[in-house]
Amino acid sequence: MDIQIRKANLDDIELITSMVAKLLSELGDEAVNSKEFKDVCTELLGKERNLYTAFLAFKEDQCVGIITLSEFASLYAKGIGGVIQELYIVPNVRSQGIGDLLIDAAKEYGINRGWTRIEVGAPDAEKWNRTVSFYKREGFIEVGPRLKYPLKKIRT
């Protein structure tokens, strides 16, 4: 299978939001407001410092996978690191090495950015055992669950 991986740009907003919406739907999350989703994606990708990045996987001219990354800074990471925010492979091409290629692109990107680590918040291991096993096979180490506290964004 010939898969091409490339860094996404502002022309890829439709692809990025479509792929992430499919991921969220599969995970059982609420329906996504596509206009708001596109606006947020445009804002994040347009930032000068590249704090949010996406890589797309293509089989011929069809997008079959995505990985999105955001950058963070912390003392425990001893500097700058990255977080995999979303990773999605189209169901009919899973287990064909596309996830490996996207993780490799993320690792190379992180090395080039000077990151000390890449983290990921994997879904529940009992329900999504294959996903957690995939990350472990890619060299990720379990460090515990992730929690969130939603903050309401105030627009001025």
Could you walk me through the main structural features you see in this protein, from its secondary elements to its overall organization?
Helix content is 34%, strand content 26%. It contains 4 helices and 5 strands; from the N terminus they run βααβββαβα. The chain has a 5-stranded mixed beta sheet with strand order 1-2-3-4-5. The longest helix has 16 residues, at 98-113.
Please tag this protein with its features.
single chain; 156 residues; 4 helices
The overall average pLDDT, rounded, is 87
Gyration radius from CA atoms, angstroms: 15 Å
Low-pLDDT parts are none
Strand order of the largest sheet: 1-2-3-4-5
Strand count, sense and barrel status of the largest sheet are: 5 strands, mixed
Summed up, the helix count is 4
What's the helix-strand series?
EHHEEEHEH
The total strand number stands at: 5
Helix content: 25-40%
The geometry reads as globular
Portion of residues in beta strands equals: 25-35%
- Please give the alpha-carbon distance between the first and last residues: 48 Å
Given helix and strand content, the structural type is alpha+beta
